Amino acid sequence: IDALNDRIIGLIQERMAVSAVIQEARITSGGRRVNLYREMEILNHYSEALGKQGTSLAMTLLELCRGRI
């Protein structure tokens, strides 16, 4: 379990870094930092895969990945 938790944390940190790059590219091109349509797709994806708690997990993940520029 500890090894899995470490992998999950590492993947979340990787996602945060990739999200920061994407947000920077959006801002540089004159767009908004956050794409709400894309966030809804992510929420739906997690919800379909994991049920109600998947939505909560996705919200937490999105919150972690916003505004890290």
Tell me about this structure:
The protein is mainly alpha-helical. 81% of the residues lie in helices and 0% in strands. The chain has three helices and no strands. The protein has helices spanning 2-28, 36-50, 52-65. The longest helix has 27 residues, at 2-28. It is flat, with a radius of gyration of 13 Å. The termini are far apart. The mean pLDDT is 93.
Please mark out the parts with pLDDT under 50 across 5 or more consecutive residues, or reply none.
none
Q: What is the helix fraction of residues, given as a range?
A: over 70%
Strand content: under 5%
Shape: flat
| Biggest sheet descriptor | none
Mean pLDDT: 93
> What is the number of E strands?
0
Summarize the structure.
This protein has 69 residues and is an all-alpha fold. The protein is 81% helix and 0% strand. The chain has helices at residues 2-28, 36-50, 52-65.
Name some characteristics of this structure.
mainly alpha
Write the layout of secondary structure elements.
Layout: H1 2-28, H2 36-50, H3 52-65
Helix pairs in contact: 2-3
